[in-house]
Specification:
alpha/beta, Rossmann fold, seven-stranded parallel beta sheet, four-stranded mixed beta sheet, 40% helix, 19% strand, globular
Length: 343
């Protein structure tokens, strides 16, 4: 199968491309390599592809370039649309670029699919940020974390959309466009509203990829800043579990067309971002890891975000397999083995 992966040199993208290459697919990466260290991911993929030359193609281009996308998508069976501007803070500072990359870029992908000789399926990486701040929910504060009082499984796909921040608006616009192209044009599309994804090959920074950022900072002696009280809770999904789901969705994309799935760790794979995460870092480091700075809560930061992932389990037979401590240990070990990339 010939598959196009936008953002294929990024964290999620390169892990997906590696899986596709290893199972024998022909993959085209569409990436502008604008994020730091993406060339390292591309070099890793080229090593994997070296055993079977001709199965990996690289198109260095921007998803704002509609013509380039049309050319890249004209003979593929499916598109995984993973490229995007990924940070809320960046979207607030530069909302125009955020809109052009996430909203217009997604529209460009859909149009490239619609106008292809045989329209490919489109699988879109959306975000939990489409649900907004969820201020109407009752939150309970416990010793080390916040929790929903009335939602033991988290928020499900019926939760009303409430786009907060330019990032929420741009990703949410793409979310709804992808869904509607299935209804209006009959293109097989699936929207995956993803929670906190983590794992090897994640070059996390302060405003995106927080788990990897904390791991990298702990190993390189860089300061760690906590915004809020550190009790904020996120459900965590290890990258291998996400790629397993991608494979299942791809295999069933015609049946699933037009559907939306929450994709995260669920309540069993959740952790508070510092009160519960810090003891794990201390155990991995075999030394106390302390925060260097505490700051005010950031705009739009949710005290709790846990996704109800039971729909994916019911309809796809999928659920996370890697627990948080095991996954974070794998991330820690990968950073340790590649520490020169982070110095």
């Amino acid at each position: 199968m010939h598959i196009l992966v936008t953002g294929g040199a990024g964290f999620i993208g390169c892990n997906l491309v590696a899986r596709l290459l290893r199972r024998g697919d022909h993959v085209t990466i569409f990436d502008n390599l604008s994020r730091p260290r993406t060339p390292h991911n591309l070099a890793w993929l080229e090593q994997i592809a070296a055993a079977t030359p001709g199965r990996l193609e690289m198109v260095r281009a921007d998803i704002r370039d509609a013509d380039a996308l049309v050319q890249a998508a004209k003979d593929v069976a499916a598109i995984f649309h993973l490229a995007g501007q990924v940070a809320v803070t960046t979207s607030v500072l530069d909302p125009r670029s955020d809109f052009e990359i996430n909203a217009l870029g997604t529209f460009n992908v859909l149009e490239a699919a619609r106008t292809a000789p045989k329209p490919p399926a489109v699988i879109y990486a959306s975000t939990n940020k489409v649900y907004g701040g969820m201020e109407d929910l009752t939150i309970v504060e416990d010793a080390t974390r916040y929790r929903y009082r009335d939602l033991p499984y988290g928020i499900d796909e019926a939760r009303p959309l409430d786009f907060h921040s330019p990032y929420g608006n741009s990703k949410g616009s793409g979310d709804q466009y992808v869904r509607d192209y299935a209804r209006i044009y009959g293109i097989p599309t699936v929207v995956l509203r993803q929670s906190a994804i983590y794992g090897p090959r994640q070059f996390g920074v302060e405003d995106q990829g927080w788990a990897a950022h904390f791991v990298i900072a702990a190993q390189t002696g860089k300061p760690i800043s906590i915004y809020g009280d550190g009790k904020q809770v996120r459900d965590m999904l290890f990258i291998d579990d996400l790629i397993d789901l991608y494979e299942v969705v791809l295999a069933n994309v015609e049946r699933l067309s037009g559907q939306i799935f929450n994709v995260g760790g669920g309540p069993q794979h959740s952790i508070s971002i510092w009160r519960e995460f810090q003891p794990l870092l201390t155990r991995f480091a075999e030394d106390v890891v302390e925060a260097a700075h505490y700051g005010d809560w950031r705009p739009g930061d949710q005290p709790v975000c846990i996704l109800d992932i039971r729909k994916a389990e019911r309809e796809l037979g999928w659920k996370p397999q890697v627990d948080v401590e095991t996954g974070l240990r794998r991330l820690w070990d990968w950073v340790a083995a590649n520490i020169e990339l982070f110095r």
